[in-house]
Amino acid sequence: MIRVNAQIELDEREIQEDFVRASGPGGQNVNKVSTAVQLRFDVARSPSLPEPVRVRLMALAGRRLTQEGVLIIEAERYRSQRRNRDDALERLIELVREACEVETPRRPTRPTLASKKRRLDSKQRRGETKKLRGLKPGTEH
Question: Which pLDDT value is given to residue 110?
Fold first, then answer.
């Protein structure tokens, strides 16, 4: 079991890892060894996730989520398969932790009377400045 927080633990059997050849650094090794990791986690059918967390995770996943509700995380940052596996798993855990946080809704506020007055005063000053720019020297308006 992979512990995400005090309430959520993911079963390792729910996570599928595929190893593919990575692009990028690695020299000749990159052509021979499959070091990149494609981690798949079925968000839509996971019994480990509470419903509100599942909904937020699906929204957070964006393009990484397939039509069937499978989250795909690709890791090819490192040259070793082990480090890429750890990186992909850490990114999954971080994404689930982020989905656990409930965002507090914004309560709209109204501008104060003083801020309205400041705004109108500054508008009036700008208007006066612009009006003075239009006057030709020696003429009164």
Answer: 92
96, 49 contact by CB (below 8 A): yes
Report the candidate in 51, 73, 53, 52 with the shortest Cα–Cα distance to residue 62: 73
DSSP conformation class of 31: G
Whether this prediction's pTM lies above 0.85 is answered by no
User: What is the gyration radius of the CA atoms in the chain, in angstroms?
Assistant: 28
pLDDT tier, 88 (very low <50, low <70, confident <90, very high otherwise): confident
Alpha-carbon distance of 79 to 57, in angstroms, equals 29
Burial degree of 22 (CB within 10 A; 0-12, 13-18, 19+): buried
